[in-house]
Amino acid sequence: MSRVIEVPGVLDETGFESLVRELEARTGDGQEAERILFDARRVRWTSPYGLVGLLAVGHVARSRTGLAPSLSTPESSDVRSYWERMDFWQNAAGVFDLPSLSTRSHGESDALLELTPIRSHHDVHRVVERVRERAATILERRLHYPKPAVIQFSVMLSEVCQNILEHADAEGWVCAQTYHWKERLGRDVLVLAVMDVGQGFAGSLAAEHARRFGDRWSSATALEAAFINGESRFRDPGRGQGLQAIRRQVTRWDGEIRIRSGDAMIARVPEWDDIEPTTSGLTPFPGAQILIVMPARVPAATTA
Amino acid sequence: MSSPRRPPGALPRISEASLYSHLVTRPTGRAVREEIERELRDWEGPAVTVVDLRNVPVIDFSCADEVVAKLVSAGLAGGGAPGSERFYLFTGLEEHHLDPVESSLRRRSLAAAAERGDGTPCLLGRVEPRSRRLWAHVVRAGRILPESLVPAQLASVEEARCALEELHARRLLVRLAEEYLSLRAAADATPDGGTR
């Protein structure tokens, strides 16, 4: 017997939340462990966040049930092609129970960074070196960012990936893609998604900071401590600056960053979006899920 | 102002560390720092190390903390015994190095002497404006005696000595007997009192 979770037609950050709720409903307390089938046949569109999110949800389903979940292939050839180009199937093979045909490789991708696992600092080096040439092309030509942005993006990528290694104690994934946000912004954007399924911010920071917060300690306060105040799980004052640096850089680019962890989310919200800067009461999910959106520059928004 | 006479104290040992490639992640930074420190491990006298970042295309915040901030910090702590001070001059800094380096120093309330890619000296990190001005004055002069600052810069020799000593204690100036040298002047100095 399998329990079926339908993957939303639009697999983005909203679709990810829906998947998390469905997973919780089917694997929550008191439920018998059964294999989960993720039915992705009707997926029409996938964002980088949704793609990494599906992998993360599959990973959690596997650890909760002890059984590798199944995943059906999308019917849309565009979606199938995108998943292939983003190396989804290669990474999914270790998470889902897949037919062997699904793990075929592809030619050169147009993504800034295909879905890449982050398990060690060597992976961070590989990722930074891998994006260098593509980032130069995409950031300068397509998003009209100044030359130094390529280096600043590399630094941001490095820090956000190291966040997985330093705080999650679990494996994570990263991917980045540029596309056109016709309805939401009317501009091209670069979307960077980074996720892990580890202990999350509350777990990582608890030993050092929970006592100070007492009953108020939660995923929301942990996120605030890390994202706003630069707190870290280490007493070393040199730690914790990575996330703050990312926030500063995203702000300079008029971008958006959201960090979801546990049952809360914190965000740097630009004027062009209207999400809440803090949200709590989300369906709990392990680890941390980070979304960074960098919009193409327009003359009026040009800053340093 | 600058003194032409040769400082009576011993010149520090000068070494150079040219860094290459992407300086990202803490383990990378740690390895680089340990390599630099290893070079000085058995040296008991004062030492100025010129750390050249010219060929570093990317340095992230974690690596800047491990290499720059922790070298400076160790120079203040472990290598701080009189006569065996450790000084670090960071050279070849480009625009993209500044934010990570500056930020990592500020997080630890440290400061470091540096030079931009074109050789322009700069002081990075947390330093009081008054000390910053004095440091710039010494850098322009190259080497200085406390009394040369009186009365134009400071009211008394004692006050001048205190102010210079504070910069020396933070390893932003080298002291040779009564004289204070910029790190560049110390790095370029020859045993006969001239410059390289």
Tell me what the structure shows.
The complex is a heterodimer of chains A (304) and B (196). With 304 residues, chain A is α/β, with parallel strands linked by helices. Helix content of chain A is 41%, strand content 24%. In chain A, the strands form 3 sheets. A 5-stranded antiparallel beta sheet of chain A has the order 6-7-8-10-9, sandwiched between helices. In chain A, a hairpin with a 5-residue loop joins strand 7 (172-181) and strand 8. The longest helix of chain A is centred in the middle third of the chain and has 22 residues, at 121-142. The termini of chain A are far apart. The mean pLDDT of chain A is 91. Chain B has 196 residues and is an alpha/beta fold. Chain B has one domain. In chain B, 39% of the residues lie in helices and 23% in strands. Chain B is built from 6 helices and 8 strands. Chain B has helices spanning 26-40, 61-76, 95-107, 129-141, 157-169, 183-188; strands spanning 13-20, 47-55, 86-93, 111-116, 121-125, 143-144, 173-176, 179-182. In chain B, the strands form 2 sheets. Chain B has a 5-stranded mixed beta sheet, with helices on both faces. In chain B, helix 1 packs parallel to helix 2 and helix 2 (61-76) packs across helix 3 (95-107). The radius of gyration of chain B is 16 Å and the shape is globular. Chain B starts with 12 loop residues before the first strand and ends in an 8-residue tail after the last helix. Classes of the chains: A alpha/beta (304), B alpha/beta (196). Chain A binds chain B through residues 121, 124-125, 128-129, 148, 151-152, 154-155, 158-159, 162, 166, 237-239, 241-242, 245, and chain B through 22, 24-28, 57-62, 65-66, 69-70, 95-96, 99-100, 103-104, 107-108.
Blueprint of the fold:
The complex is a heterodimer of chains A (304) and B (196).
Chain A: E1 2-6, E2 10-11, H1 13-27, E3 35-39, E4 45-46, H2 48-65, E5 70-71, H3 77-85, H4 88-92, E6 113-118, H5 121-142, H6 148-168, E7 172-181, E8 187-196, H7 200-213, H8 219-227, H9 241-252, E9 256-268, E10 278-295
Parallel strand pairs in A: 1-3, 2-4, 3-5
Antiparallel strand pairs in A: 6-7, 7-8, 8-10, 9-10
Chain B: E1 13-20, H1 26-40, E2 47-55, H2 61-76, E3 86-93, H3 95-107, E4 111-116, E5 121-125, H4 129-141, E6 143-144, H5 157-169, E7 173-176, E8 179-182, H6 183-188
Parallel strand pairs in B: 1-2, 2-3, 3-4
Antiparallel strand pairs in B: 4-5, 6-8, 7-8
